[in-house]
Amino acid sequence: MTRNEDGSALIEGAIVMPVLCVLLFGVYEFSWFFYQQHLISTGLRDAARYLARSSAPCNPDASSWPSDRANARNLATTGSVGGGVARVKGWSGAAVALDCLPIDNMVSARGLSTYRGGKVIHVVTASTRFVDPGLGFLRFLGLKSPTISVSHSERVIGPG
How far apart, in Å, are the Cα atoms of 126 and each of 44, 79, 122, 142, 148? Predict the structure, then answer.
């Protein structure tokens, strides 16, 4: 009995190629997502550090506090206090939440405080929730875009 194997490689390729393409594009899409998450995390770290070292940190009555917060939002989203091109397409300062939390620096029974510093320690937190626009491959597969949720906290140390 003779077997005709002409075209078998073409059939095998036609079966395997879609699977390989989905795998390749999926890896590329998730790599892109993690890169965007890294950029957002870096921006929030920069904003929290900027506020932690501002001239009047965590003082809402200071005249510089509103501009410091605006500068921190610009720094987070663009990499510059003056603004510019967004680090991540679609991510704006309106999506950045900036909070300042006072924490009591309690003294233990041995007479040691929990942290170095005064009776109250302030911590600045920059956070965001952002739906990554992605490259479109996940939408092509019928999946919704992932949400990037990142925050970063820094202890206030004042101007430096």
Answer: 6, 14, 13, 32, 14
